């Protein structure tokens, strides 16, 4: 992990930034402006001696404490320290260690090498091992990795090993009743399964051998990815030496428009700070928008909050009510653009799944778009639930406003592929026989392998083919794009009320035909777009 560039002995300069709708300004939109006030400093020497100071008396009240962020509080508890500041190096007691089939074998190998072949793990109930990445494949090395996990968990009597034994047909039906008898212990994508199985708890420290482990921070805990060497050490000791990171604070206020999802919010943030903007930094999310997002737990917990006097490295403010649906263009998650700005990008597939876009809420959102349109998809649309529970929800929960239809029924009517077995799937490519992997260019598209995906990264080769073009988007945008065969703003199908929107797109006859007039309502002004020219 990279070290912090902040000097721990100096106070932090709070850099407050208002990055709402204006952050998306382009050459075709309203102008952006920034004002910076600088105080003139005289270079004239006024003294060559330190001024005489009175003798400082010792404090009578003990150590002076400063406010801490929630990250600093959690790490202070885990390191049994009363006070921490960014830059401190501390030994942290780990509450949960997670590993999977990609990094687990390497971590196990290091553990055995350093602690001995017959060594026992520090706590068999605090280790969670989840096969999820390369599962439904005939690749021998991928299958061997799962075997290594199984042997280790049997040897160590690991309590939370979510094994998969039958790699055949995952979906089993008996007398019209849906059952999952083949793999009762298998869960699916680790980041979603960790939460669903109760391993994410506020105030705790969760480490995992996966860079997306930080998503568990949504549950008010400190969560981060670590390497195999660190994981091998934690397996044997339950501790890890960590440097306390500085914190970035993101204040998101305003009513969440019904055409946006959490994916749009994080794409806005990544586009603002870049993919490297939070390297070895904690990210704290607050504001009325965040408070309105849903959460649930059945385990009693004590939440951790930042002190009012806590110091932050930077603060970013967003008015969410003014945001529009976003995408991240190839080949980086910070290559942010408005979905409507990419309306001429032809695609050849849509992928809805992964830890970031394969939850029950994500499939409900996609079904909502398909239901509203009443049309069939124009490109192959792949659906990969994150976990068994999500897969069950797709087949059992009715979609609001559908008259009792489930997601699976709506997907079938729309012409989507049958929901696949839960796993990471094609999110990170994997073996060639991985479901929905981008292997060859599609004949239907002039540019090879153009995909709108709800996954988390779009680097070259990420989903398979090195020439693949991946546009990251919300389930709303992904579903809308599947219906048109182009990158599409979901408001075209969600029938949003123009009076409560800053921008409402109304496509003539709901068809994308070049040369047709498109009315765009912006507040009280109406603009007409024809052949990509705006006329007032």
UniProtKB/TrEMBL annotation:
InterPro entries recorded: Acnase/IPM_dHydase_lsu_aba_1/3, Acoase/IPM_deHydtase_lsu_aba, Aconitase_4Fe-4S_dom, IPM_dehydratase_rel_enz, IPMI_cat
Residues covered by the Aconitase/3-isopropylmalate dehydratase large subunit alpha/beta/alpha domain: 89-294, 340-485
Pfam assignment, any one: Aconitase
Keywords: 4Fe-4S, Iron, Iron-sulfur, Lyase, Metal-binding
Species annotation: Rehmannia glutinosa (Chinese foxglove)
Name of the protein in its database record: Aconitase/3-isopropylmalate dehydratase large subunit alpha/beta/alpha domain-containing protein
CDD domains linked to this entry: IPMI
Keyword match Acyltransferase: no
């Amino acid at each position: 992990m990279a070290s912090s560039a902040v000097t721990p002995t100096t106070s932090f300069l709070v850099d407050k930034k208002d990055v709402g709708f204006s952050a998306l300004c382009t050459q075709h939109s309203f102008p952006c402006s920034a004002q910076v006030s600088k105080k003139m400093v005289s270079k004239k020497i006024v003294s060559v001696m330190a001024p005489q100071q009175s003798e400082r008396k010792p404090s009578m009240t003990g150590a002076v404490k400063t406010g801490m962020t929630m990250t600093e509080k959690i790490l202070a508890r885990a390191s049994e320290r009363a006070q921490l500041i960014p830059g401190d190096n501390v030994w942290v007691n780990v509450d949960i260690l997670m590993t999977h089939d990609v990094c687990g074998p390497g971590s196990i190998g290091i553990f055995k090498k350093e602690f001995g072949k017959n060594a026992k793990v520090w706590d068999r109930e605090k280790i969670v091992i989840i096969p999820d990445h390369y599962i439904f494949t005939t690749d021998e090395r991928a299958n061997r990795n799962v075997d290594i996990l199984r042997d280790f968990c049997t040897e160590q009597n690991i309590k939370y090993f979510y094994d998969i034994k039958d790699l055949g047909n995952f979906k089993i039906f008996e007398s019209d009743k849906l059952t999952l008898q083949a793999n009762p212990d298998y869960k699916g994508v680790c980041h979603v399964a960790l939460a669903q199985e109760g391993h994410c708890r506020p105030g705790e420290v969760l480490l995992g051998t996966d860079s997306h482990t930080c998503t568990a921070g949504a549950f008010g805990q400190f969560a981060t990815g670590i390497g195999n060497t660190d994981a091998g050490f934690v397996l044997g000791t339950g501790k890890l030496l960590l440097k306390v990171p500085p914190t970035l604070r993101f204040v998101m206020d305003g009513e969440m428009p019904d055409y946006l999802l959490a994916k749009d919010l994080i794409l806005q943030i990544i586009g603002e700070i870049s993919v490297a903007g939070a390297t070895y930094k904690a990210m704290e999310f607050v504001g009325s928008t965040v408070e309105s997002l849903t959460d649930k737990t059945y385990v009693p917990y004590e939440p951790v909050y930042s002190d009012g006097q806590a110091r932050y490295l930077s603060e970013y403010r967003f008015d969410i009510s003014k945001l529009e649906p976003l995408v991240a263009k190839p080949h980086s998650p910070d290559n942010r653009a408005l979905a409507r700005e990419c309306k001429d990008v032809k695609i050849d597939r849509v992928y809805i799944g992964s830890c970031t876009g394969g939850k029950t809420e994500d499939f409900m959102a996609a079904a909502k778009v398909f239901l509203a349109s009443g049309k069939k998809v124009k490109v192959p649309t792949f659906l990969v639930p994150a976990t068994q529970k999500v897969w069950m929800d797709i087949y059992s929960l009715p979609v609001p406003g559908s008259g009792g239809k489930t997601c699976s029924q709506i997907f079938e009517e729309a012409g989507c592929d049958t929901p696949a077995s839960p796993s990471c799937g094609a999110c990170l490519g994997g073996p060639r026989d991985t479901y929905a992997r981008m292997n060859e260019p599609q004949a239907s598209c002039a540019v090879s392998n153009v995909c709108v995906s709800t996954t988390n990264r779009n680097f070259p080769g990420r989903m398979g083919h090195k020439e693949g073009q991946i546009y990251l988007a919300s389930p709303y945008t992904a579903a809308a794009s599947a219906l048109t065969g182009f990158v599409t703003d979901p408001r075209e199908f969600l029938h949003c009320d123009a009076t409560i929107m800053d921008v409402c797109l109304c496509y003539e006859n709901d068809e994308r035909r070049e040369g047709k007039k498109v009315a765009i309502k912006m507040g009280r002004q109406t603009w007409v777009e024809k052949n990509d020219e705006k006329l007032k």
